[in-house]
Amino acid sequence: MAAGRAFLRAAPSSLAAGAGRFAFACPTALPLTAAAAAATGPHRRGRGRCYCSASDAPPPPPYVLTTPLYYRLLDKRVVFITGTDEHGEKIATSAEACGRNPKDHCDTISNSYKMLWADLDIEYDKFIRTTDRKHEAVVNDFYSRVLDSGDIYRADYEGLYCVSCEEYKDEKELGENKCCPVHLKPCVPRKEDNYFFALSKYQHQLEDLLTKNPNFVRPSHRLNEVQGWVKSGLRDFSISRASVEWGIPVPNDTKQTIYVWFDALLGYISALLDDGEKASLQQAVERGWPASLHLIGKDILRFHAVYWPAMLMSAGISVPDAVFGHGFLTKDGMKMGKSLGNTLEPKDLVNRFGVDAVRYFFLREVEFGNDGDYSEERFINIVNAHLANTIGNLLNRTLGLLKKNCKSTLAFDSIAAADGISLKDNVENLVDKAKDQFENLLLSSACETLMEIGNLGNLYIDEHAPWSCFKQGGESAEKAAKDLVIILETMRIIAIALSPITPSLSLRIYTQLGFTEDQFRTLRWEDTKWGGLKAGQVMMEPKPVFARIETETDEKDQSSSKATKGGKKKARSQGLVEA
Fold this sequence. Notes:
Layout: E1 7-8, H1 32-38, E2 63-65, E3 78-84, H2 89-97, H3 102-119, E4 126-129, H4 133-148, E5 152-162, E6 167-169, E7 188-197, H5 203-212, E8 217-218, H6 220-231, E9 237-238, E10 240-241, E11 249-250, E12 253-258, H7 260-264, H8 267-270, H9 281-286, E13 294-297, H10 301-315, E14 323-326, E15 329-331, E16 334-335, H11 346-353, H12 355-365, E17 372-374, H13 376-406, H14 414-417, H15 422-439, H16 443-464, H17 466-472, H18 474-498, H19 503-512, H20 517-521, H21 552-564
Parallel strand pairs: 1-3, 2-3, 3-4, 8-14, 13-14, 15-17
Antiparallel strand pairs: 5-6, 5-7, 7-9, 10-12, 11-12, 15-16
Helix pairs in contact: 1-12, 2-3, 5-6, 6-10, 11-12, 12-13, 12-16, 13-16, 13-18, 15-16, 15-18, 16-18, 17-18, 18-19
């Protein structure tokens, strides 16, 4: 997967850092974009809905993301764009190695990404392929605009070229044996007669953009990196290839093809067109440009934060609002690679642990914007502790007590039950905190905040011990019934707030609370307000909503326990518990 790139260039078979895009988007090599992808768009909230008022006022502009976020919960009209970047020398070479022509090869790869997004519970609004006819039409229009601006000229170029990056490299940035610092392969000398884009012309405009809008590149250490590149002096770059046949022909010289990055970046715009409509650059721009956020891998930051805005300025088009560069993954502290045999297969992770576990771990454990490490031991420990124990066990034990003592029926409204209870105020404050963290892409912090709500719920039920109060009867039993309502209302709120991260788990929680799937699909962030559960509401039969991941050590412990306790198995944390 192309590391964090919205348009993916390689088969999604492995998650090697720098070799792939989890878009939670995380969405990630997998995981980081893929994981972030995960953070929103999975369960389509409000797709295609109209938010116009009765006054016939024009609708607000859409929030255009080139990888998903959680904004559907805020009732914003979101367009989540993803797709595959299918041109260039590297694609043609890969196709030949597989014994296929480039188009058939791209069909296979593109379809594999769509299947992977489905496995990861990620849904998108637009899937663009750079071999689509509408995309080629947009690229041709864009090239003509830049040419008319006087920013394209022809010249010879000679330098060291990285085929994997599809980029000429400065010799000073190369490692030993003139190796690319990203792919660790020797760069090859090349000399070509190409067309160039006058990037240097936009030196001062880019400096002004970065100075006046420091949020254009995030996080801040990525901004510093980009400012360093710009201040060191920008050089014009080649936007055509004479030696590459697999690409869009240059409009004024069909003997050359357009450089893959000059082509691929425009996929963000061409994707906005509806299928079947007449394709043009202006039509696409009017469909929702500029993008609100580009979520990309740190290795392609230069293309998105330097080349792309300058290209847009040349064509007279607005630059995107922001570019966010995520990091890479390592595995057990080591860089991943096929030669080391330590790559991560996203489909294998989902098949072994479930999609919610995969989404949650990468968004919780990797601080968005930085590099992160995957360890299976830590993966299992985190997922079991947070999803199986803190969330799943709390719901299960509470529903079990409600079934035993209240026939699974709520005796009080959640507002009345929580009157004068500090837990309600604490939950509301933490929900507001999580909302702010989501909006600022502090996804790991948002997960921590939501787990803090779960911890408060567990602390509350342990301190109030409703199982004992029910046994005492009278006012104590009435108080215990209120306590169960309070905990279940807390679980309802967690389910909504956590749904961008773990949509399937959140749905299971919500339906056990007596709601339908249709009700879950229409939820908005405002529904996290305390007061959703009403007296008389009947809960579903308690069932584990998240199965604890068993390890070899767990199985050995259970076998030992069975042998020493006359066949009694060790209790699983996800079972029904009555303290």
